[in-house]
């Protein structure tokens, strides 16, 4: 997820992403809609609570988690009686990934890598079968398009996740201080979707930066993501994705 431009929520004190030009913001941690006021360049925006219900903001978050961006924008427009541009800017600034976006960038386990490789081999086999066994039948020339499309899409997804896997294992290392962590959905007994806001100090001594990520975590890991705790992290060169080093270990306690 992109690095964030931070102001503090006046309701709960959590960091809120407020990119330039936005007139409204949403605190993902306490479910408050906030009016944005800017005084001068370089100074964090001032945030004022708006009178939207917590339930309405939870609905916006649920729609985003389910990949229903248009519905989330429409709902926020309706409850705030605001133009689409203002609602869209607030929704796009909300640091929350959909299930699909989150899954796209998850590092692969050994089992996932093996299954993805088998899928690629299967698609390659289909393409080879149609190309070399039925090269002249026009009907099969049409059918061959399907496995080729599947192969290209699967290969693209595989290499994207392979890149995430490489970054999580060998990317630039650093220490991530937990600025705030909040559960946005409980999936089952020991599985949660959470938003974690990191302040990352790279081990190479370069500039500290902040980043927020939507993550899948279990109960044991969630317990370690308390405000102020410091854990080991890795991140990509563009500093757009931060991954917790596994097993997650608390290097310094915030309490």
Strand content: 25-35%
Number of DSSP E strands: 11
**In angstroms, what separates the terminal alpha carbons?**
28 Å
- Quickly give the structural class: alpha+beta
Biggest sheet statistics: 6 strands, antiparallel
The average pLDDT score comes to 83
Overall 3D shape: globular
Helix and strand sequence: EEEEEHHHHHHHEEEHEEE
Number of helical stretches of at least 4 residues: 8
What are the low-pLDDT stretches, counting only 5+ consecutive residues below 50? none
Helix amount: 40-55%
CA gyration radius, whole angstroms: 22 Å
- Our count of domains comes out at 3
Protein architecture, described:
By secondary structure, the chain is an alpha+beta fold. It has 3 domains: 6-96, no CATH class; 104-169, no CATH class; 172-252, OB fold (Dihydrolipoamide Acetyltransferase, E2P). The chain is 40% helix and 27% strand. Strand 7 and strand 8 (209-217) form a beta hairpin. Helix 1 runs antiparallel to helix 2 (69-80) and helix 2 crosses helix 3. The protein starts with 5 loop residues before the first strand and ends with a strand.
